[in-house]
Amino acid sequence: MNDQVLHGEIIQSRLDDVRAYDGVRSRRIFAFLIDYLIVLLLLIPFGLVVLLLGLITFGIGWGLFGVLGPLVAIVYVWNTLGGASQATVGMRAMGIRLDRLDGRPVDGLFAVVHSVLFWAGNVILTPLVLLVTLFADRKRTLHDLLLGTVVTRTDR
User: Fold this and answer.
1) d(CA 26, CA 95)
2) For the residues 105-117, what does the mean pLDDT come to?
3) DSSP 22-87
4) E strand or H helix at 146, and its extent?
5) 9: pLDDT confidence band, cut at 50, 70 and 90?
6) What's the pLDDT score for residue 20?
7) Which residues partner with 153 through β-bridges?
8) Per-residue pLDDT at 10 exceeds 60
9) Which end of the chain, N or C, is more open, meaning fewer C-beta atoms within 10 Å of its C-beta?
10) Is the pTM of this model over 0.70?
11) Rounded CA gap, 79 and 86, in Å?
12) How confident is residue 11, by pLDDT bands cut at 50, 70 and 90?
């Protein structure tokens, strides 16, 4: 129990440091582009598997093409953002990570909910998602505010 309290205090002191948010907005954008490219590249081998499955099942398997993109993205986010580093490959490349304000680690389900809210927010309120970062504390996006999360630099 004392280790959890100490760990939470260390995270909280890091989250209170304003230097942890320097350049986060632009780093998030570039991390998103890297992750988007990775998911697109992952779709190639999985798409080939679905193609072969469709041939074997006389076209029935091709129905999986409709859910392939979101499914690959969800598995990618679950395993990267929901992992020990609390960052996707793009986020690690840009030196940022996702933290919860309550100090608990980000698990796979929480990571998927965070991403789904991001995409839902972009579909419905595209400009508002990024505009919120100009006015919110800690450069948080709309879905960060809803979930109690913040993106910080890993080098600070």
Assistant:
1) 11
2) 94
3) TTHHHHHHHHHHHHHHHHHHHHHHHHHHHHHHHHHTTTGGGGGHHHHHHHHHHHHHHHHTTSTT-S
4) helix 142-147
5) low
6) 84
7) 96
8) no
9) N
10) yes
11) 9
12) low
Question: For the purposes of burial, counting CB atoms within 10 Å of the CB of 59, is it exposed (0-12), middle (13-18) or buried (19 or more)?
Answer: exposed
Domain residue ranges in the chain: 21-153
User: d(Cα 26, Cα 148) in Å, to the nearest integer?
Assistant: 20
- Residue count of the chain, please give it: 156
pLDDT of residue 8: 52
DSSP per position, 77-109: HHHHTTSTT-S-HHHHHHTEEEEETTSPPP-HH
Instruction: Kindly report the average pLDDT of the chain as a whole number.
Output: 88
The C-alpha atoms of residue 73 and residue 39 are separated, in whole angstroms, by 6
